[in-house]
Design a protein that fits this description.
By secondary structure, the chain is of the alpha/beta class. It has helices at residues 15-26, 38-46, 63-76, 101-127, 150-169, 201-207, 215-227, 237-248, 250-257; strands at 6-10, 30-35, 53-57, 83-86, 133-137, 176-182, 232-235. Helix 3 (63-76) runs parallel beside helix 4 (101-127). Pfam families: adh_short.
Length: 259
């Protein structure tokens, strides 16, 4: 019988992380769930088949927690780490000029430094597992900078660049590096109220006439990304439209973003 494959997912308490965990577990994988939300982790684990999940309460900014969690998970998995899904992130927005430095720092630390931590610490485990993959969750905001989401966009551009760089750098080690580039997804992040605003991100998205993509579609895209050859996997109509417009109509995008 084939050895069970293993995936470690940050942000596993809800949204994309939860949906991805459910899909991989349903296909026979062992799932490591990591998040700061202990109750949410338990809820996700309860949705998975018996014996399919291990839970780790951790903050992706904490390197010691990364070390402890991956060491513990790979003991359970028999040393395997087939996929490390750097998925944890927060949604922030509002005028950049009035954003607090605390908010800017927190967004950068969670959305990008957390991904750096996972990649750097996870490398040793991925390198020992043939055919392994580092999967990073970026965003359609990594296609063209989004007015009103400056810091968020910057972190997702950074995730995209890191993905491309490491896919080349780690080729010799047999590690694929991939990114998910979803448009606006139906997750709790959309209910965030940016500092200095009285409107949620959901209100801004729907008010702009943009569609929301089901989180299950992102999970299916994660499976394709891990098993496919494309470095970036775009998910949702908005992501595909932005990709096209950024290439062929960049001036139109600039005009649309001006306020």
């Amino acid at each position: 019988m084939a050895e069970r494959k293993a995936i470690f997912i940050t942000g596993g308490a809800s949204g994309i992380g939860r949906a991805t965990a459910r899909l991989f577990a349903a296909r026979g994988w062992l799932v490591g769930l990591a998040d700061v939300n202990e109750a949410g982790l338990a809820e996700t684990a309860a949705l998975l088949p018996a014996g399919a999940a291990e839970q780790y309460v951790m903050d992706v900014r904490d390197r010691d927690a990364w070390e402890r969690s991956l060491a513990a998970f790979t003991i359970v998995s028999g040393g395997r780490l087939d996929v490390l899904h750097n998925n944890a992130g927060i949604g922030t927005g509002g005028p950049f000029a009035s954003a607090s430095f605390a908010e800017i720092d927190r967004t950068v630390e969670i959305n990008f430094v957390g991904v750096l931590n996972g990649a750097r610490i996870g490398y040793a485990y991925l390198a020992k597992t043939p055919g392994s993959c580092l999967l990073n969750t970026a965003s359609a905001s990594a296609i063209y900078g989004s007015s009103g989401l400056a810091t968020y966009s910057a972190t997702k551009f950074a995730v995209r660049a890191l993905t491309e760089a490491l896919d080349g750098e780690w080729f010799g080690a047999g590690i694929k590096v991939r990114s998910l580039i979803p448009s606006f997804i139906e997750t709790p992040l959309l209910d965030t109220v940016p500092e200095g605003s009285n409107r949620t991100i959901r209100d801004r998205v729907t008010g702009a006439g943009l569609e929301l993509t089901d989180v299950e579609e992102v999970a299916k895209a994660a499976w394709r990304a891990v098993h496919g050859r494309a470095v970036h996997t775009y998910v949702g109509k908005t992501a595909h439209r932005l990709r096209f417009a950024a290439r062929w109509f960049p001036y139109a995008l600039r005009r649309r973003s001006r306020r």
